[in-house]
Amino acid sequence: MPGNLLLCLAASHPNPVQREDLVDALYGEDANADARNRFRVSMSRLRRLVPLVETEDSVSLDASQVEVDIALIKKRLAEIELEPAVETEVAMLKELLFTLRMVLFPKATSEWEMKAQAAWSQTACRTLERLGILAEEMLDYSTAADAAEAALEHYPFDTGSWERFLRAATRLGRGAEAGRRLAAAQRRAKAESWPSADSLKSLVVEREDQDSLGPVLSPGESTALERFFRRTLLQEPSLAVEILGSTSFRPEVIRSPRAVLPLLREALSLSGGSAEARERIHVRVITALSLLEADAEVLAATKLFLSQSVAPARRRIALLNASFAHATQGDLAKAIECVEEAMSLASGPHAEYDRQECRAQRATFFLMRGDLDAAELDFRESIDFLINAHREGAEKDLLSVSGNLGLCLLMQGRIEDAINALRPVVQKARWLDARDILAIHAPVLGLALARSGQHAGPLMTQGLRLAYRLSTRRVLVAAALVGQSLNALEADPKFEVLLEAWGHRRQTATALSAIDQFLYAPVLHLQPTVNRPLVDFVRETLYITSRVGGE
Prior knowledge:
It is globular and about 95 Å long. The protein has a three-stranded antiparallel sheet. With 551 residues, it is mainly α. Helix content is 72%, strand content 2%. The protein has five domains: 59 residues, no CATH class; 137 residues, Alpha Horseshoe (Serine Threonine Protein Phosphatase 5, Tetratricopeptide repeat), CATH 1.25.40; 129 residues, Serine Threonine Protein Phosphatase 5, Tetratricopeptide repeat (Alpha Horseshoe), CATH 1.25.40; 85 residues, Serine Threonine Protein Phosphatase 5, Tetratricopeptide repeat, CATH 1.25.40; 94 residues, no CATH class.
């Protein structure tokens, strides 16, 4: 049986392979007349065994009759890349872990085998890296470790995979074992003269993993700290209040608002602690509620907080959160009043930065009110300031404001200006992995491109998928943008996607802004019924956008 020829075709399935490439792959420098005769004989035998599709120049396995494992796996991976629910994506990828760790040609010697192996390893490791990242974000360190180990089957000396394995193993209480395995890999890499040997050596030295969260804690250490804090809440409430009101705890409010909200509320119910710490905790409750889009609770908590005598800086933060809650409830006049009061409270070394933050938020409210000229003016002033600002977070703030300017320009009908504003925002956001920015501004750019006659399927797909993972409010905006884009590209001439997005939007019972009216304009007069969950609607829409080409 012409095994090598079949394997060569299978490795490229379902794509055809040029006949000359097959001859070169199988016979290399020996591709003389005799080799070509042997190739013809092998082809003749293969035709009797396997259905083929042949042209004068190329050969492929008949995809309508032949299935190849690696092609099926690649097809499955492409489907998983469209899954909007992160928990479902992780579960699907975990089912493929055994397959993803397998090496295609363990003893590859020929060039075509090595090329096929390299292509498969890149595909597998790209997927395993994504699984590892998602697993770490979900605190599923067992899966993160398994994904890293699987990647090391392909590239035994890859520093990124070793770093992830060390982090996960340490958090699972297997740090010492992981360190020994890494040291052995480093010695082997050095003996085989691999360029990454020095990088692995530095990992051996630094395996304590001093990341932005400090030293990695073992499961036992984490349990001990949990018991300590629970005991502190009961026996030393003043200390618990100071801990939750400390600067170090603030990032956890942004990272996990739903998880920390009960803790913050319990701390406020305790007696003791400094007035400053209690103020900080109250503001963090408001911030967490705002991140959870609980607008009514934001306004109630803010009203209580502002009725007290509080520091101007924390009053400003509370007003900013309240302003957005007012805006989403349709009271734009009150929203603007709050943000302008917040602007007047800016003081200290970062006063101008804080004022510009307020100005950018006011511009968003102007946009929601339909006052596009005023919005553009404020957006541009904030952008001019942020371009030269030197403060942590300024780069991301600049992207957000620039993206909102792009939406403003699109609403004005200035399509080319919108594209020019949005394209660098999306490019930089991809580089920074700024998912909250991509979730909205990638589909905004997609609509601008669609209205200029350009396809932007990947932008629509990426934005909608990320938006689903952030919040209902964001995914409905992204879905409306995608629906309009598909219609502009004649991929959805009856506005079916936009109409279903509008049905889900109507269920939220929040006020319609000028942005909403722009997004849903073609279907505002209709009253569609919703017949399936939001996630199923998003899945089908992602399947549609995946078939649209473009950037």
